[in-house]
């Protein structure tokens, strides 16, 4: 926490932007996660804990945690399986304990094994998803919840069909607010605006939200046909008394500890939440202008502490979330103070001015999220990845396609499969080299093995051996090799004792151990 307040002039306005991004996402994820009887405040609790508690313990400079869309299906299924939300909270607490243990055992190292092309593809895909998912909200069609990342939606539509359907339910008032909001955000992104002292502290996102509220109130009073209400506005639970506030919090039912399903759910939450957090940490570090490296084991412990606290207070599971983190970075956040302040703002505003927050049109918030998406999926990113060659570009593109057509983790798995293919392909080709010449008028072929020769090279070495011409001299040199897998030694031995003799190929080897092949 050293010097945490030194950048407050940048962190305070950034925290306000993150708060405005996080508010609808917390509500949307809670609405989708808790089913027929939504526990909306569970998302707010998770958002506050993700900001304040995880922010305090995390080693991430700019990462922001909260409830994640990637856990929606797991949470829905878990509540149904365990029979109550209170039993589910027990699983969240246990999941947090498992994450803390995993952090102490060094499991955070997993985060270092995701290729850069896949992480950048994930960022671009999330950006495109935000843009596509916010189009319906921009035109006033708010059937799907804000924060949905999955291709197949809970309202029975998918990402693309929702857009077409939205234009059958256009709200002129929403479009006016959305267009003006986007114009303000684009204006605030211009360099000359950043030189004005006032607008260094007052972010464009705040202007957009205030403008949206004022415009809709004007519509209500003077142009009723343009006015928006109901599902088109933020919908927070409002407390009329202290007892109502107490009712927002639910607590774990620890009698559920005797239910073995609780532990299965806890393990699933811990695994998925940890993966999502590690992926987001990697992505956030790439977006960080200072390129700080987050200690991943410390992050797992921080996420674990966050989930223990969230579960104890009635909140959803938390993970680090790239949408909020990127909003923090784009808004000029400089330290974890912006993360912590956004959590405090979320709590204070929900408790003190819920009626004011319930006047915010979703169209205004959709415009903010769309700008976040645009910055994550910029054209320059695609150009840079294409310039790196197909071994980088194809995993990047397939990650994007996978995330858009499935969900975050499945899309990452698809991109990872393509990245591994190129790694194997490169390994297949590059662990030895072939030199061709002549000796006493006969062909001379020299195969120089590299330092590490694995079973992955078995196929290509076998292919090269069969291309050696008859009546030639073959030299296989393993003098530079530290290790040669048994599979490769077996291929060489079989070639030397069978194929080479049949084709009159003289074989000379250097530092190639003989192995016993089928009793020979």
Task: Write a compact overview of the structure shown.
This protein is α/β, with parallel strands linked by helices and about 525 residues long.
Beta content = 5-15%
What's the helix count? 22
Biggest sheet overview = 4 strands, mixed
Proportion in helices: 55-70%
Could you explain how this protein is built, in words?
Its main location: membrane. There is one protein chain. The protein is built from 22 helices and 8 strands. By secondary structure, the chain is an alpha/beta fold. Among the domains are: 13-170 and 237-358, no CATH class; 431-510, STAS domain (Transcription Regulator spoIIAA). The strands form 3 sheets. It has a 4-stranded mixed sheet, with helices on one face. The chain has a two-stranded antiparallel sheet with strand order 1-2. The protein has a two-stranded parallel ribbon with strand order 5-7. α5 packs antiparallel against α20. The longest helix is centred in the middle third of the chain and has 28 residues, at 260-287. The relative contact order is 0.17.
């Amino acid at each position: 926490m050293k010097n945490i307040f030194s950048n407050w002039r940048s962190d305070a306005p950034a925290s306000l932007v993150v708060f405005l991004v996080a508010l609808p996402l917390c509500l949307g994820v809670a609405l989708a996660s808790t089913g027929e009887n939504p526990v909306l405040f569970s998302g707010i609790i998770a958002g506050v804990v993700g900001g304040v508690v995880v922010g305090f313990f995390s080693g991430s400079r700019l990462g922001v945690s909260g409830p994640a869309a990637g856990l929606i299906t797991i949470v829905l299924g878990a509540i149904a399986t365990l029979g109550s939300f209170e039993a589910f909270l027990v699983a969240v607490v246990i999941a947090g304990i498992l994450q803390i243990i995993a952090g102490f055992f060094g499991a955070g190292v997993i985060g270092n094994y995701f290729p850069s092309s896949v992480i950048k593809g994930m960022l671009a895909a999330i950006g495109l998803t935000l843009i596509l998912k916010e189009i319906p909200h921009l035109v006033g069609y708010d059937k799907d919840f804000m924060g949905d990342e999955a291709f197949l939606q809970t309202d029975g539509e998918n990402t693309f069909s929702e857009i077409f359907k939205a234009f059958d339910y256009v709200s002129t008032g929403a479009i006016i607010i959305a267009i003006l909001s986007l114009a303000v955000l684009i204006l605030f992104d211009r360099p000359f605006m950043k030189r004005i002292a006032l607008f260094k502290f007052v972010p464009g996102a705040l202007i957009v939200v205030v403008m949206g509220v004022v415009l809709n109130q004007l519509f209500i009073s003077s142009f009723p046909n343009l006015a928006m209400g109901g599902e088109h506005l933020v919908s927070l639970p409002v407390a009329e008394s202290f007892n109502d506030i107490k009712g927002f919090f639910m607590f774990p039912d620890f009698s559920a500890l005797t239910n073995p399903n609780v532990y299965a759910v806890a393990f699933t939450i811990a695994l998925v939440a940890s993966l999502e957090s590690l992926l987001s940490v990697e992505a956030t570090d790439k977006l960080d202008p200072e390129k700080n490296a987050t200690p991943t084991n410390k992050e797992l412990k921080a996420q674990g502490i966050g989930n223990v606290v969230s579960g104890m207070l009635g909140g959803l599971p938390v993970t680090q979330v790239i949408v909020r983190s990127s909003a923090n970075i784009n808004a000029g956040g400089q330290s974890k103070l912006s993360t912590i302040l956004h959590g405090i703002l979320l709590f204070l505003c929900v408790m003190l001015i819920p009626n004011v927050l319930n006047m915010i049109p979703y169209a205004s918030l959709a415009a903010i999220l769309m700008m976040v998406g645009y910055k994550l999926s910029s054209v320059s990113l695609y150009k840079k990845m294409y310039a790196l060659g197909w071994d980088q570009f194809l995993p990047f593109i397939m990650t994007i396609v996978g995330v858009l057509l499935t969900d975050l983790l499945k899309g990452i798995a698809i991109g990872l499969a393509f990245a591994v293919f190129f790694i194997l392909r490169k390994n297949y080709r590059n662990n030895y080299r072939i030199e061709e010449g002549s000796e006493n008028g006969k062909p001379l072929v020299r195969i120089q093995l590299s330092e590490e020769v694995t079973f992955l090279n078995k196929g290509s070495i076998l292919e090269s051996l069969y291309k050696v011409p008859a009546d030639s001299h073959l030299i296989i040199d393993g003098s530079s090799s530290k290790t040669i897998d048994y599979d490769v030694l077996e291929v060489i031995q079989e070639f030397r004792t069978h194929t080479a003799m049949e084709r009159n190929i003289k074989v000379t080897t250097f530092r190639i151990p003989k192995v016993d092949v089928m009793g020979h």
